[in-house]
Amino acid sequence: MWFFSKMCTSKARLDGKTVVITGSSGGLGKETARDLYARGARVILACRNMEKTREAIDDIKNNPPSWMTKDEYKNNVGELVIYSLDLRSLRSVRDCAKNLITNEASIHILINNAGVCGYPYEKTEDGNQTTLQVNHLGHFLLTLLLLPKMKLSSPNCRIVNVSSSTYIVADIDFDDINLEKAYSSFFSYAQSKLANILFTKALARRLKEADIHGINVYSLHPGIINTEITRYSYISYITQIPGVKFCYWLFTLLFCKNVEQGAQTTIYCSVDEEVANETGLYYSNCSVATTYRKTNDSEYAEKLWNVSCRLLHLEPEEDFNAFLKIVARQMMYLENTNLKMNVCRY
């Protein structure tokens, strides 16, 4: 509920830090970008729609977060940069990663925020169900590709995976992870959000076992927010009915957070000093939350990791450092074409 919403109270500055936020042309991603830009970070908006992202840049530059005055905003902000990223295409993910690795001196914070909800059944050019690839597989691959750069940028690096409490109703059928036998847009979304949490836990374990320090991993539930993520769902249709529209408006007024409130837990995981020594945990309302069901099953998380690797045509490897080198070599082999320089500075 909005009246129980906690705000991130950390005053941490991010001067000299580089932050990558996927899906930051609107909604929670844009509000997160606004906050971190106000803290002095070089904020990279990794997005699909360039025109919409340029509009987001203008909005961010002209409107400070609620905790900062316009006068302060003029002199204490960071930098805004756009990179092209379409998570529906693994080629685009590799291109974006290659551009980031080539052009950025360092990457300190990666926020895997982009997502779709209520998407109709459709497969990407890579053969994966769209919701699974956009919400999980694309971020899984992007994270692996950027980890070597983040290792060079450590300590105090963070990977933040935006999940959802809908994971509670999900289970993963590893024999039918693309839900070809029986598709439900809501269950597909919930499954992808469960995957975000499992990925967080599995990655945190691998980083620890590989003796890679200075990179912490977080997953979170932002709360119930009425954002554009529902544009493909049944909600966008039923709310056109006058009576339903009023009831939905009343529900959102009473129970939903606005986008600034919804972005607070993402911001908290990205900047708060107290969580700097935590990793692999799940957060809600700017504090650690308990996870349920399959999220605490390490074998379940390992199975998802292995299936995700194979969907990306990667062979799981026990030696995580060696595995990251294999991932990097695959990127160079598959993308041995002209480097796309889809970078705009503002």
Give a short overview.
By secondary structure, the protein is of the alpha/beta class. Helix content is 44%, strand content 12%.
Describe what this molecule looks like in 3D.
This protein is of the alpha/beta class and 346 residues long. Helix content is 44%, strand content 12%. It has helices at residues 27-38, 50-62, 70-75, 90-103, 130-153, 185-209, 235-238, 242-255, 259-262, 264-271, 298-311, 320-334; strands at 18-22, 42-47, 79-84, 109-112, 157-162, 215-221, 281-284, 343-345. The radius of gyration is 19 Å and the shape is globular. 44% of the residues are buried. Mean pLDDT is 90; it is low at 229-241 and 243-254.
The helix tally amounts to 12
Major sheet strand order = 7-6-5-4-1-2-3-8
The first-to-last residue Cα distance is 36 Å
Q: What is the global morphology?
A: globular
Unreliable stretches, pLDDT < 50, 5 or more residues?
Answer: 229-241, 243-254
Give the beta-strand count.
Answer: 8
Series of H and E elements: EHEHHEHEHEHEHHHHEHHE
Percent of residues in beta strands = 5-15%
Sheet with the most strands, sense and barrel status: 8 strands, mixed
The Rg value, from CA coordinates, equals: 19 Å
Helix content: 40-55%
Tell me the structural class.
alpha/beta
- What's the overall average pLDDT, rounded? 90
